[in-house]
Write a structure and sequence with these properties.
single chain; six-stranded mixed beta sheet; 400 residues; alpha/beta; 19 strands; FAD/NAD(P)-binding domain; 34% helix
């Protein structure tokens, strides 16, 4: 495939915008089509690990994100009564992975990505459909309410319900229910001090983390039948988590019903055969939707975007670089979901005992399971963690 002169990105989320920026910086004329009336995402935060921060370094945004974000500090896993099951050390994680884990609002990241694109690149309220994936002899075609666009490359970043994925792989079963639903809250919580934590109970989890702007990001998950809803989701959270340790009661007291977002979790249980067809490439949830239990959904979308821009002339190389890695991480996320959503009391007791033992053995042992996720490097340098005294020498060859 010749180097794309015209790229169309379907979806203006984090993965789609990262791809748009990377392709623009590579010389492509890019159009982003977002069906929502604006780019502003519904209130939530995103945790970025060293792997995605290195990817953002490639487009010149990593340092800004590190400066704007809250660096996730010491904390760990707790039981509902407040007992610590394991403690984590931010310093140990940074030394091991060559960079910090950070947290910032999705809206902040979206805004900074969009600011790197030329004016007029992003079209909102723009429904798009793939009319023809194209091939080596003809361009791809995308239809919009304003007419049809031809493209040398179409990037499908249209989320877990991806219409482009269904068009390219009509025999694929699509996403399945992961067995649990999630709630998210992002609110001010003045005067309340706490250590970042995730708390594992019986078929339920809760996490609370401070943001740099003074707000708190909290999330919860519980095993429930698919499609369940409550007239007052704050009251539902209070029913399920109101007797858990501080600061959970304080978060629930400060939240309003309209502050609480809820959605069922779904993932692609069967991997796609490829992440491309013709001149179309899938990325993010459209390619490999996974449960949020490793905090890697958005991180992997960012990785996808940088690798796709690198392999823009050879989409088979993009698939070869991304499909094995994301499939392995998605499977691990499903496994972690089974672990932290355990409802069998005997199984929970064993789980909690093992977590405590790992923590006492040292943070490095507990962090080891994240090694091959966080130590990823983009296909071209430079990035901030290379060869610094603070992080050690990470100058070995990058991989896609």
């Amino acid at each position: 495939m010749a180097q794309p002169k015209r790229a169309v990105v379907i979806g203006g989320g984090i993965g789609g915008l990262t791809a748009a920026v990377a392709l623009h910086q590579a010389g492509a004329r890019v159009t982003v089509l977002e069906r929502a009336p604006s780019l502003a995402p519904v209130g939530a935060a995103i945790s970025l690990a060293p792997n995605s921060l290195r990817a953002l370094d490639v487009i010149g945004l990593g340092a800004t994100v590190r400066d704007l974000a809250a660096w996730q500090g010491d904390g760990g896993l707790r039981a509902p009564d407040g007992r610590w099951l394991s403690r984590t050390s931010a310093a140990a994680a940074q030394r091991r992975f060559g960079g910090p884990l950070v947290l910032l609002s999705r809206a902040t990241l979206i805004g900074h990505l969009a600011a790197l694109l030329p004016e007029g690149t992003v079209r909102t309220a723009a429904e798009a459909a793939l009319a023809d994936p194209g091939d080596s002899r003809r361009p791809a075609r995308v239809t919009t309410p304003d007419g049809e666009l031809e493209a040398d490359l179409v990037v499908a970043a249209d989320g877990i319900r991806s219409a482009v994925r269904r068009s390219l792989f009509p025999g694929h079963p699509g996403p399945v229910y992961s067995g649990f639903t999630t709630w998210r809250v992002m609110i001010p919580l003045p005067g309340v001090r706490f250590a970042s934590h995730e708390t594992w109970g019986r078929g339920r989890i809760w996490g609370t983390h401070p943001l740099k702007d003074g707000r708190v990001y909290a999330y919860a998950a519980a095993v429930t039948p698919e499609g369940g809803r409550s007239d007052d989701e704050r009251a539902e959270l209070l029913r399920r988590f109101g007797d858990w340790h501080d600061p959970i009661p304080a978060v629930l007291a400060a939240a309003r019903p309209e502050d609480v977002l809820r959605h069922d979790v779904r993932h692609l249980a069967r991997p796609l055969p490829a992440y491309h067809s013709g001149r179309v490439a899938l990325l993010g949830d459209a390619a490999h939707a996974m449960p949020p239990t490793l905090g890697q959904g958005g991180n992997q979308a960012i990785e996808d975007a940088i690798v796709l821009a690198h392999h823009r002339d050879d989409l088979a190389a993009y698939t070869a670089a991304r499909l094995p890695r994301t499939t392995a991480i998605a499977r691990r996320a499903v496994g972690v979901a089974r672990l932290n959503m355990l409802r069998n009391r005997a199984g929970m007791a064993v789980r909690d005992t093992v977590l405590t033992a790992l923590s006492k053995a040292g943070p490095a042992l507990f962090l080891r399971g994240f090694d091959d996720i966080a130590d990823w490097r983009p296909p071209r340098p430079p990035y901030a963690s290379v060869g610094t005294r603070e992080t050690g020498d990470f100058s070995r060859d990058a991989h896609g």
